[in-house]
Amino acid sequence: MIVDGLLLAAGAGTRMGRPKALVVGDDGTPWLVAALGRLHDGGCRRVTVVLGAAAAEAATLMEGADAQVVVAADWAEGMSASLRTGLAALDPDADAALVTLVDLPDVTADVIGRVVATATGPDVLARAAYDGTPGHPVLIGRAHWAGVIATATGDHGARHYLKPREVVQVECGDLATGRDVDTPARTSDA
Questions:
Q1: pLDDT score recorded for residue 190
Q2: CATH code of 24's domain
Q3: CA-to-CA distance for 36 and 46, rounded, in angstroms?
Q4: How much is the pLDDT for 188?
Q5: What is the DSSP string of 131-181?
Q6: In DSSP terms, which residues pair with 77 in a beta bridge?
Q7: Residue 186 predicted with pLDDT over 50
Q8: Range of the domain at 65
């Protein structure tokens, strides 16, 4: 079972005041670099990072990193543009993609590993849940990539595609909150 990671980090971060791909955590590590490490440590074979706003600057943070970087030219359209670009760039020999966001600093490698462990083949659909509330990361089997690409619009990601389908909920509330960080005041809450 081959699971590749897909890190969405293209947004402008308007509420944050800068692209979230450029945010540096309290420990001095850029969120982008930390999230990339968690994907590898959580069991993803390869990682594709989707950039958009400030792509050149964000790419410099990843120099020497073990990742494929792609730029979503239409990133301003919302998360769906990043998701479509990322899924289209994945290696076709992967059975599934573990999709996560750069602004989830408390989502650990243990969370990622728990979701990756549910991968059963190219038909899998699973996602982390935090105290019963669905969140990220989301595991999307290769059999669903074309459908997600065709239906993803705006800032909804795969939400419309997943809603009518059976998606395995992987409870991770014992490991993290899964909350995204949207404002500078919340960066210290993570």
A1: 43
A2: 3.90.550.10
A3: 10
A4: 42
A5: TTEEEEEEEEEGGGHHHHHHH--TT-TTHHHHTTS--EEEE-TTT------
A6: none
A7: no
A8: 3-176
